[in-house]
From TrEMBL:
Residues 35-211 form the Ribosomal RNA adenine methylase transferase N-terminal domain. Its EC number is 2.1.1.182. It holds the Pfam family RrnaAD. It catalyses: adenosine(1518)/adenosine(1519) in 16S rRNA + 4 S-adenosyl-L-methionine = N(6)-dimethyladenosine(1518)/N(6)-dimethyladenosine(1519) in 16S rRNA + 4 S-adenosyl-L-homocysteine + 4 H(+); adenosine(2085) in 23S rRNA + 2 S-adenosyl-L-methionine = N(6)-dimethyladenosine(2085) in 23S rRNA + 2 S-adenosyl-L-homocysteine + 2 H(+). The gene is rsmA. PROSITE patterns: RRNA_A_DIMETH, SAM_RNA_A_N6_MT. It comes from the Bacteria. This is Ribosomal RNA small subunit methyltransferase A. GO terms for molecular function: 16S rRNA (adenine(1518)-N(6)/adenine(1519)-N(6))-dimethyltransferase activity; 23S rRNA (adenine(2085)-N(6))-dimethyltransferase activity; RNA binding. Belongs to the class I-like SAM-binding methyltransferase superfamily. rRNA adenine N(6)-methyltransferase family. RsmA subfamily.
Amino acid sequence: MEDIANPERTRKILKRYGFKFKKSLGQNFLTNITILKQIVAAGDITKDDDVIEIGPGIGSLTEQIARKAHRVLSFEIDARLMPVLKDTLNHYHNVTVLNQDILEADLKTIIAEQFDGQHNLKIVANLPYYITTPIMLHLLEAGLPINRMVLMMQKEVAERINAVPGSKAYGSLSIAVQLHSQVNLAFIVPKTAFMPQPNVDSAIVELVGRQEPLVTVTNQTLFDQLVRGAFAQRRKTLWNNLQNQFGKQEEVKAALTIALEAVEIAPSSRAEQLSIQQFAQLSDALNQQSIFIKKAQ
Ligand code: SAM
């Protein structure tokens, strides 16, 4: 059967349905079959896998996943694509497409309804770039037993996810993702692989879920507040950012000083110099100060 992603076939489908791309929905469809096959290969998909896809578009990637997987569940926000997908994916009886915003989806409940729980859970997607970070966080926070994720995203976000301490790209997103997953920046995809072409280059990122988070902390809310606050203004010192986050009262300053001294982190350091382990140590030290326990409840 001819691939949906074949540029000729994609054009025909778009014409038949009079489809106009919505830039506001990040609609850049893949028309390069080699790249699609590389994405699916990176997912290492077999009939033992149930796969969630975000944003099937006209089904180019969905089709390739469906040929390998046990089942595919795709979330597409754009109602105009539903009749198109019904047509293009007609032969794939293992695919379900939900006309739903992924960010609104109660993933745990939907997965329990749609999948039998007997297969590995994987996520494979060419993400809509305008909401890459919220989607990543939504997936991570859903607490799903995800075995592997393969996500196409803008190169700049991929670099942030994969960044190490001390680098410019390192930040709260690197920490949020690396806490739960091992990251591998698999390959770069040129703009020419898409219709219409996006303004930026893209990258495929592989995320393999960790059995246990990289660090465990006594107060996760406080850890999240600490990391978010520490990176709020990258040019400022840790001390300034933490005061902005937690308050400038004398008792806050005193507690901050004690905690920073206990873990031997200089107040003049910058957030990007701290490893995830150091953030965890600082969070636990803050959590021993009563004023911070109250703040992070
Ligand atoms: N998978 C297709 C491909 O590779 O050619 C299309 C990928 S395109 C980059 C992103 C898709 O995500 C579009 O079909 C868009 O309508 C859809 N989308 C955008 N925002 C969404 C959201 N919040 N929830 C679900 N789908 C969304």
